[in-house]
Design a protein that fits this description.
Largest sheet: none
Protein name: Probable membrane transporter protein
Main location: membrane
Number of helices: 10
InterPro entries: TM_pro_TauE-like, TSUP
Distance between the termini: 29 Å
Order of helices and strands: HHHHHHHHHH
Organism: Streptomyces yangpuensis
Structural class: mainly alpha
Transmembrane segments: 30-52, 72-91, 97-115, 127-145, 190-207, 219-236
């Protein structure tokens, strides 16, 4: 990475990690396009996966008292399995088809929640989790479907953020391993991640504090705002 790009990367890191700690997800909404623009698509997606994986370790620690291991286990495993498959194979799939599938799933899930069909949310969660991992391996972000999968567990906002942190850690760690093996991540990338560690702690603290203050209704608004942001990004890419 060129030295003059580092301040821009650090600014994107702070914004991404603060949002991620507030909503439980959304970091890739900022980090992936920023790094892809600065470093190129493959290098940017790979570095974003590494930084997000490291940050999710901090988030898991910050929300350690509200990690719903039992409820989230299936979701986490399916996200990891889908991510591995996506990182290895889904690069062959048409990107337009993947984008349209994610947008349709987002609209369907919003309608299901708005109309109160809780059983449908629970039944669709495992499918969304696997699809989240698969699209993450393809595009660098699992945000929309991962959010929908965990939302289907019917958790309060603290446990919801905890579950999202666990699922994000599983997916980003899987991608990091795949990209390292493929030599897309080098020692300099890991050095950048090390430099960002203090920012991870500071941003996570700020995000968790914001989450504690907004209440359940405020969090619901934040959740769907992030989801709308992902939908907008996907539509812009069509």
């Amino acid at each position: 990475m060129e030295p003059h790009l580092l301040p821009v990367v650090l600014l994107a890191v702070v914004a991404a990690f603060t949002l991620s700690a507030s909503a439980g997800f959304g970091g890739s909404l900022i980090l992936v396009p920023t790094l892809a623009l600065l470093l190129g698509t493959k290098s940017g997606v790979a570095l974003a996966a590494l930084l997000l994986a490291a940050n999710n370790l901090v988030k898991v620690f910050a929300y350690r008292k509200t990690l719903p291991y039992r409820k989230a286990t299936v979701i986490v495993l399916l996200v990891a399995a889908g991510t591995f498959l996506g990182a290895k194979l889904l690069i062959l799939a048409p990107e337009r088809a993947v984008t349209l599938a994610v947008i349709v799933s987002f609209v369907a899930a919003f309608l299901i929640e708005s109309l109160g069909f809780k059983r449908s949310r629970r039944l669709s969660a495992p499918v969304m989790a696997f699809a989240a991992g698969a699209t993450s391996g393809f595009s660098g972000t699992s945000g929309p479907l991962k959010g929908l999968a965990v939302r289907g567990l019917d958790l309060d906002r603290f446990h919801l953020v905890g579950a999202l942190s666990l699922a994000s850690l599983a997916g980003d760690a899987t991608k990091t391993a795949v990209w390292t093996e493929a030599s897309l991540l080098t020692g300099s990338d890991y050095l950048v991640a090390l430099v960002c560690v203090p920012l991870m702690f500071a941003a996570t603290f700020l995000g968790r504090r914001f989450n504690a203050r907004i209440g359940e209704r405020g969090y619901t608004g934040l959740f769907w705002t992030v989801m709308a942001g992902y939908a907008g990004r996907l539509l812009a890419g069509l």
